[in-house]
Amino acid sequence: MIDLVVEGRLFLDGELKQGCVGIENGRIVAVKKVLRGETKIDAGYRIVLPAAMDPHVHFRQPGMTNKEDFSSGSLAALHGGVTTVLDMPNTFPPTDRLAVLKDKKRIVRGRSYVDYGMFVTTDLPRRLEAMAPHVAGLKIFMGSTTGSLLDNDDKSIHRMLRKAEALHVPVSVHAEDDSMIFHEEAGSLKDHLRNRPADAEFNAVRRLIALGAKGVNICHVTRAEILDMATEAGMSSEVAPHHMLLDIGSPLGARGKVNPPLRQPLAKDALYRAVAQGKATMLGSDHAPHTVDEKSEDFDICPSGVPGVETMFPLMMAAVKRNDIPLATLVRMACEEPARRFNVPKGRIEEGMMADLAIYDPREMSTIEGSRLYSKCGWTPYEGMEAIFPQTVIMHGEIQLKGGEPCGETIGRDIKDEPL
User: How far is it, in rounded angstroms, from Cα 238 to Cα 54?
Assistant: First the structure.
């Protein structure tokens, strides 16, 4: 008899169908109308989806654990229905060589509630070659942001793209042309947008296209036109909820300071519509927490970034409930495509996949409150917005979240060094 059976409205072949999922040894072994198991979860009218994957988080470990660490960040992810995260390399020290990568993995091992992979950054091909077997991807920063990492030289970028391709290492790019970023004093979201104009983003993408960067992932796209540019050039695109839901008119002050910046309301609305039409490849939170004290500093010196791993999928589930975004589009962007691109056996409810599932009650709409979220930073730019959080999350076939409360342990594994 099967170990665990989950019955409910399953997301199968692009639609919801009543059925059962059979789970053994952490994997899905059967998907049928009726199954018997030693243990059964009857979700009834609730929706059973593949758990989400967030391809873009900054869990701040090592060096900035006052803002976040893998324990707090992964617990936040779990509460948002996310069971796999990819962590970015702009930590202290930056993850730019094998020794640092190994030390970061040692620190994180055994502390994560969800599975994880690590991005690295370097402009030295020999370093990437040494790190390649152990990494989820290479991150290239064409625009300056948190930390001092920057590679905005076409020859260097081309060299690293070719090396990554030869090593089968996925590449994600922070696409803002640093030569077009101004460093004038800024006191508002409008000023920050002036300093980092959309032209910097457009030009970075144009340069990547000229370099033949097919297969590259463009991170945190802010303009609908860039989604089309990326698709036509054979690149993937990643969109963050804050660029879809917030703009320079949002009453956030320094809390809304991000890179790339929040855009004008019309640009935000156009991006939202384009995502709803299925033009984006992936959803990524760009979870980049800073403390309340840091975000309370003068606008010009406060750090850029907002938290979002816990609210990413629930915010979009509320958009599905409002009929703004098709459920199939959301599942493709947040579950299927990230898993496919980064070669993780998750993202779909089918035999052979890891048994990572999230159960949602579409009737249970709630209001986001920063004080109730699990990120160490303790605030959210989405305060007061509607969301649908998961009631149950299953990872590796184990119940990790039940009734909206954590009930599991730190069983998260490194997707490269501890094969799933």
Answer: 10
Model confidence pLDDT, tens digit, residues 314-359: 999 999 999 999 999 999 999 999 999 999 999 999 999 999 999 9
State mean pLDDT over 374-401.
98
DSSP 44-102: EEEEEEEPEEEEEE---TTT-TTT--HHHHHHHHHHTTEEEEEE-S-SSS-S-SHHHHH
Alpha-carbon distance of 77 to 418, in angstroms, equals 20
Sign of CA dihedral 24, 27, 32, 34: positive
User: How many angstroms separate the CA atoms of 221 and 374, rounded?
Assistant: 26
Q: 66: Cβ–Cβ under 8 A, 6 or more apart, which residues? A: 291, 376
For residues 260-268, give the mean pLDDT.
98
Q: Please pick, among 115, 247, 286, 414, the residue that the annotation labels catalytic.
A: 286
Domains and CATH numbers, the chain: 2-48+351-406 (2.30.40.10), 51-341 (3.20.20.140)
d(CA 106, CA 43): 38
Residues paired with residue 21 on neighbouring β-strands, in sequence order = 6, 31
Residue 286 annotated among the catalytic residues of the structure? yes
What's the pLDDT band for 147 if we cut at 50, 70, 90?
low
Mean pLDDT to the nearest integer, 373-387: 98
What pLDDT, in 10s, does the model give residues 59-113? 999 999 999 999 999 999 999 999 999 999 999 999 999 999 999 999 999 999 9
Q: How far apart are CA 95 and CA 279, in angstroms?
A: 32
C-alpha–C-alpha distance, residues 17 and 13, integer Å? 9
Q: How far apart are CA 330 and CA 131, in angstroms?
A: 32
Task: Look at residue 116 in the predicted model and tell me its pLDDT.
Answer: 98
Rounded Cα distance, 332 and 265, in Å: 26
Q: For the chain, how many residues are written?
A: 420
Q: Three-state SS for 273?
A: helix
Nearest to 255 by CA among 161, 382, 393, 94: 382
Indicate the pTM of the whole model. 0.97
User: How far is Cα 331 from Cα 186, in angstroms, rounded to an integer?
Assistant: 38
Q: Phi then psi for 157, rounded to 5 degrees? A: -60, -45
